[in-house]
């Protein structure tokens, strides 16, 4: 017994020492103090841009948290909202939302349907936003110039409290979540080989948003030199890769009796996920080069794909419903009434209502994630376990 007591005591001591060392080593530096966040992206991080520019998002969107539509394609908060909460900052106001907007702690240039590369189609055809990434960066340039000028005019008045400080642009966190729509357009318009060949250019244009403000063709067209975000002082960049697009329920709405190998073991469209993985691989390679090109930048690659696919593939054990089931909308056989809309099914008017408990669903409306899923993904990416370098978002100002 003495021998085993000694073994147990030694083991216990080692565990305690390991835990203590983990506590000391895990977060040796104080958290970064970001005074503002500037976000660029699509509907995964749009907090009201597309609603301000076009038709506002209607109920039951926003019901779980805001208790009314809040410009978000979800029942509640998005990942970008949880990032803001992590820094105790207000939720980001959309740049395009001109009414009663406070930009003191950042702005959101994302719009639903945005792409990295410009698309030659209107939003009324396939829902693609006219505000591609290059336009979002141009909007940021204008935002910075105009708010700086305005602040200098009103800095001694209460109006200044709604404006950013020029010296804080270099201290802000710049976040990106875009690329999913480029793939969806590619699936619609290109062959697999054509899309695969286009991926490096798509990725390069995303990287240029960090380096260069606006695409070269646009800058040439308007004969204006666009400054780099980096040259303007931006130093901390938090870049999401794209999620498992093949797991979005919408991709199965009109599929019956799929051929063997079309779906993976979790019911996701295999070829689409493989393309997303290819995109992410090229993105990660480009970010490695970008770090060398921008010696003072702290750039974090965030593996949202692994978090989302991990959630989807283990949904039942995590307390979620079937990940391919949709909470909001009417989707029975091949009859589809989108969330918040009305339509006819067998001569009866049907409303695309919300489910009773959105908190157990991963998919909110077939395309976008529920608040519960967004929170799970945020919790599993913002802690640094799925980032390169492996740092939490609270340390995203550190160059590793």
Automatic annotation (TrEMBL):
Keywords annotated in UniProt: Glycoprotein, Hydrolase, Signal
Gene3D superfamilies, sorted: SGNH hydrolase (3.40.50.1110)
GO molecular function: hydrolase activity, acting on ester bonds
Superkingdom of origin organism: Eukaryota
Keyword Signal on entry: yes
SUPFAM superfamilies the UniProt entry points to: SGNH hydrolase
Presence of the UniProt keyword Glycoprotein in the record: yes
CDD domains linked: SGNH_plant_lipase_like
Cleaved signal peptide residues: 1-26
Family the entry assigns: Belongs to the 'GDSL' lipolytic enzyme family.
Protein name: GDSL esterase/lipase
Species of origin: Populus alba x Populus x berolinensis
Phylogenetic lineage: Eukaryota, Viridiplantae, Streptophyta, Embryophyta, Tracheophyta
